[in-house]
Design brief:
single chain; elongated; 2 domains; Arc Repressor Mutant, subunit A; about 130 residues; mainly alpha; 6 helices
């Protein structure tokens, strides 16, 4: 059985997103640069990295006087777990309820609906 992934606070998720966008493991200064829109102190980033490592989301490897940080949890795995949680919590576990809420809120364009139809047809055939 798969281990259940814990939901991350927004600040930790921002660090994970920076790691997921990277082509390779990042140093802390590289993470600082990737997170410049957050205007966090270096100590904040270090604390967030320590929390993520403790939760098993990232690993660090010594490199010179610093560390390289890499994601252990893929973005796809995290998004799948979050989607199941969201669907269960807000929509009674029913995808139809979620799509209906989007439609009722005028959040689906005709193009979105066509993309959903195409995806569902592929899913029926087992092509996704």
């Amino acid at each position: 059985m798969k281990e259940k992934l814990r939901r991350l606070p927004d600040s930790e998720l921002a660090v994970m997103q920076a790691l997921w966008r990277a082509d390779a493991p990042l140093t802390r200064p590289e993470l600082d640069a990737a997170l410049t829109h957050r205007e966090w102190a270096a100590t904040t980033v270090v604390a967030l990295l320590a929390r993520l490592e403790g939760k098993g989301f990232i690993a660090r490897e010594k490199q010179g006087r610093g560390y390289l940080y890499r994601a252990l949890v893929t973005q796809d795995a995290y998004l799948a777990a979050e989607s199941r949680t969201l669907l269960g919590t807000l929509y009674g576990g029913r995808p139809r309820n979620f799509i209906a809420a989007l439609h009722d809120a005028d959040a689906l364009t005709p193009n979105d609906i066509a993309e959903l139809e195409d995806y569902l047809e592929k899913a029926k055939r087992g092509d996704v």
